[in-house]
Amino acid sequence: MLERFYPDETADSSYEIDYEGYYEAGYRGVIYDVDNTLVPHGAPADERAKALFARLHEIGFSALILSNNKEPRVKSFAQDVRYADYIFKANKPSAKGYREAMRRMGTAPETTLFIGDQLFTDVWGAKNAGIRSILVKPIHPKEEIQIIFKRQLEKIVLYFYRRKRAKEVCHGEKPERGKG
Ligand SMILES: [Mg+2]
């Protein structure tokens, strides 16, 4: 039941992902959450973010910012990083914005990657749209109270997620035979 919130992968940061490898594997579009995924909540695009989108463009990726935040915030960020389209008030975890993002980038669920910092909006939405998701650690630890509450719930889900992952790794090392 909790599996609907499980990311396909986790990473320490949006800036520490093997984008070249994903491109080689056939991925062509990357959808990003913005707040606490690329910069602290509400912060403008910094040099690191600008360099990332230039790098994605160089590799050959289409990129899009998918945010539940309002237009002025999302639009100015997308304009600052260049090479990124944007969708604001996306209503994640609804799959609608993710589908619109793929339509604009000309990609399919199999060739699209999603990167975000929250399970109950970002990851769940990607799952609803059938897109591979990477959960990253939130950039800024200071968060609004309703997000702090959600983080507590996320911790519970992540506990079971990590336990499941650990078991899978265990089984990988010592495959059980003669069962089933
Ligand atoms: Mg976020």
Structure description:
With about 180 residues, this protein is an alpha/beta fold. It has one domain (about 1-145): 3-Layer(aba) Sandwich (Rossmann fold). Helix content is about 45%, strand content about 15%. It has helices at about 20-25, 45-60, 70-80, 95-105, 120-130, 145-175; strands spanning about 10, 30, 60-65, 85, 110-115, 130-135.
Short description:
The protein is of the alpha/beta class.
Largest sheet: 6 strands, parallel
Counting helices, strands and paired strands, the structural category is: alpha/beta
Q: Counting H and I runs of at least 4 residues, what is the number of helices?
A: 6
The radius of gyration is 17 Å
Percent of sequence in beta strands: 5-15%
Low-confidence segments, given as residue ranges, are 175-180
What is the total tally of β strands?
6
Average pLDDT score:
92
Strand order of the largest sheet: 1-6-5-2-3-4
Determine the fraction of residues in helical runs and give it as a percent range: 40-55%
| Ligand set | magnesium ion
SSE succession: EHEHEHEHEHEH
CATH superfamily: HAD superfamily/HAD-like
